[in-house]
C-alpha cells in the first residue's frame, strides 16, 4: 500500500525532499552572494556617482555615436553580438528595455527592504539582528524579504519577456548564419570525397592496426570542421565589411547630431550627402574594415581584457547557433 494518500501528497513530499537536499548548496550560494554584496553596492554607488557627475555634459546623447564606432571597429570580431543587437532593435528592443526596467525597479525595492532590515534590532540589545545570525538564518531572512518586497507578476513577466527576446534573437541568428554552417559542411564533404581515401591510408599507416576503423571517421569530421571554419571566416569578413559601413554611418550621424545640439558645430557644415560627410564616411569605414582584417579579428591588449565578458557572450551565441540540429549539409556547394 502506498505511503501517500494521493498523487498531490507524493509530489509535495518529493518537493520537500529535494529542497532539503538542495539546502547546503543554496546556503553555500548564499555565502558567495553575501561576500559579493559589498562589491556590488560599491559598483552601484560608482555608477550613480558617474551618472550624476557626467549629467551636465549630456553624454547619453553620444550613445548612438559610440555604438556606431564599436560596430565599425569591432563588428567582425563580435559579429554574433552585433547581429543580435541589430535583431533586438528590429524585433523587440523597446520590450526588452521595458522588461529590464521592471527588473531594476523590483531589485531596488528588494535592496531598500534589505537596507532597512540591516538596522532592525528587535530584541533591543544594541546589535542588529542580522549580525547575530549564521549564514543559513541570514539566507532565509533575506529570501523572505525578497519575496515580500518584489512584485511576482512583474518579475515573472519581465523574465518571460527577456526569454522570448533571447529565443527570438537566436532564431534570427540561426536564419542568418546557419547557411554558412551548411555550406561549410558541404565543403568538408567535398574535400572528404576528394582527399579522404588518400588521407585515410596515411593515417592508417601511422596508427596501430586496431585503430584503423577510426581513421575514416576522423578524416570525415576533420574535413567538415575545416570546411565550416572556411565558411565562417568568409562570413566574418562579409559581416565586418557591412558593420564597418553601417557603423561609420551611425557614428558620423550620431556625432554630428550631438555637436549640433550642443551648438559646437554649425548645422550646415557636415550634412549627409555632402562631399565632406562622404569623405569622412569612407575614411572611417575603410579604417574600421582594414584594422579588423589586419589584426585577423582578434583584440589587442587591453581591449581583450576589458571586453572579455562580451567575448563570452559571443561564444555563447555562436554555440547556440551551431547546435541547431535541423541544419543539414547542402548536397552541393552550388545549391
Keywords:
single chain, 335 residues, mainly alpha, 10 helices, flat, disordered C terminus
Compact description:
With 335 residues, the protein is mostly helical. It has helices spanning 7-54, 63-74, 79-91, 93-117, 135-149, 152-206, 214-261, 275-294, 303-306, 308-322.
Structural features, described:
The structure is a single chain. The chain has 335 residues and is mainly α. Helix content is 76%, strand content 0%. It contains 10 helices and no strands. The protein has helices spanning 7-54, 63-74, 79-91, 93-117, 135-149, 152-206, 214-261, 275-294, 303-306, 308-322. Helix 7 (214-261) packs antiparallel against helix 8. The longest helix has 55 residues, at 152-206. It starts with 6 loop residues before the first helix and ends in a 13-residue tail after the last helix. Mean pLDDT is 79; it is low at 325-335.
Helix content: over 70%
Strand content: under 5%
Q: Poorly predicted ranges (pLDDT <50, ≥5 residues)?
A: 325-335
Question: Which structural class do the helices and strands define?
Answer: mainly alpha
State the helix count: 10
Ends distance: 64 Å
Average predicted local confidence, pLDDT: 79
Largest sheet features = none
Overall spatial form: flat
Computed CA radius of gyration, to the nearest angstrom? 28 Å
Order of helices and strands: HHHHHHHHHH
Extended strand count: 0
